[in-house]
Amino acid sequence: MSSSDSTSSSSTGLRPWRKNPGSDFILPTGEKLRWGLGVFLVCLVYAILRYNVFKGVEWIHLPLYVGNKAFALAGVTLISFAYLIGKWIPAYSDDTKRRRALTKFCGLTGAAMIGMHACAGFIMLSPAYYEKFFLEVGKMNLTGELTFLFGILALACLFFPAVTTLPHMYEALGGARWQKAQRMGYYCLLFACAHTFTMGWKGWLDTSTWPGGLPPITMLGFVVALAALVAKLTSGKR
Question: Which of 59, 98, 119, 199 falls between 20 and 30 A from 148, CA-CA?
Fold first, then answer.
């Protein structure tokens, strides 16, 4: 470690730079499927039950409209898991390399799903799909503009930890800058809370409107993102 790295670490209060302990370990395919596909399938089944089965959304809207809700919930869940593993999720507590590899996988897979969620959302962006976001003249109302603003800000913050997870970025940046970039994920989750709250808080208040008694996906996404933020504040760890 260079003296500049050491000085930077001490001045920012971050841990000194060292080689990424999970950089030379590849998570087995079975574990990737269990975490990535498993989380997505749970979210997809939930979305199908809530919207297609209980709310009566036509099945022709399953591929994109309902599926997009699963992408959103699974994406924010996996990103939250990336910060909860080692804090509230004691996965591989006796194997640092495996735990760091799982953290990296959850973060990157979650980022990919959020990217798909954003693409699908922009494709369907119209009063026909999201009437509550638009005025009668066809322009967005305040709820719509704030919802998409917070979503864009969350994506922008997610870019930093995603890119710096690429091979050799840890070594290229040094510990202090790498940790700062990774911590931008917390801002992503903060904006995700704002995104989901602005979008759906009115539907959270009246449980009689919940199809099948199932809470809104925006509410679940808010809770999952908030959990990672609370874990950060209460643990004092990255």
Answer: 59
Distance of CA 171 to the CA centre of its chain: 25
CB 65 within 8 A of CB 57: yes
Structural contact between residues 188 and 158, judged by C-beta atoms closer than 8 angstroms: yes
Instruction: Scan for tokens 């690429």, then name that residue.
Output: 166
Query: Per-residue pLDDT tens for 146-202?
Result: 999 999 999 999 999 998 887 778 777 887 888 888 899 999 999 999 999 999 999
Q: Is residue 89 classed as helix, strand or coil in its secondary structure?
A: strand
Q: Tell me the DSSP string of 105-121.
A: HHHHHHHHHHHHHHHHH
* C-alpha to C-alpha distance for 48 and 138, rounded to whole angstroms: 29
Identify residue 193 by its one-letter amino acid code.
C
Cα–Cα distance measured from residue 69 to residue 229, given in angstroms and rounded to the nearest whole number: 22
Cα-atom radius of gyration of the chain, to the nearest Å?
Answer: 19
User: Has residue 93 got a pLDDT over 70?
Assistant: yes
CB burial of 121-148 (b: ≥16 within 10 Å; e: otherwise) equals: beeeeeeeebeebbeeeeebeebbebbb
**Alpha-carbon distances of 96 from 24, 84, 132, rounded to whole Å:** 11, 14, 46
